[in-house]
Amino acid sequence: MNKPGNIEDLLQGGRMLPLMEEFYTIQGEGYNMGSAAYFIRIGGCDVGCHWCDTKPSWNAGLFPPVSADSIIEKAASAPALTVVVTGGEPSMYPLDYFTSRLKERGIKTMVETSGAHPLTGIWDWICLSPKKFSPPRPEIFAKAHELKVVIEKQADLEWAEKNAAYVSPQCLLYLQPEWSVSEKIMPWLTEYVMNNPKWRVSLQSHKYMHIP
Q1: What is the pLDDT confidence band of residue 7, given thresholds at 50, 70 and 90?
Q2: What CATH number corresponds to the domain at position 31?
């Protein structure tokens, strides 16, 4: 696990968080694509996807914990009043304090998680992005509003269908081409979605827009 051994003491029950970066931008992926949100990227991840585009986030020790209240103040100043917590893997940390304070300020809370750890926090929207290397815990499937599976090769479609079988009927289903091979796989991925219309295609539109 890529976090220092004494991190629990440093976090003070979630009042401190190993913040990697925070920024106001446009959501680039999934159901909320195109909408403004304040992004909070928390350092630390033990899933280790080889195609991860934020590998520096894996080592929480690189990001000294900062005050959750100070993060909340900055998020509350953004016009959208929507926060997306991502990582790393945010569920490695206690987020109940953080999210409850956000909601007290009238801020909508969203999270993107692999589901590999017990879910923490109070969320208005949960995007479950399962990874083969560390599969989701069974209890998170029923809570997910959105299932977003990264597709690198055709064999990944079987993994996507396996996870889709566990989520609720209301959960929205997305297949997202891995960026480095997106042009190569797009023909058969779009054909798959046309033949299996329960799925939608998610694109990393922020990369096309050249924004964070």
Answers
A1: low
A2: 3.20.20.70
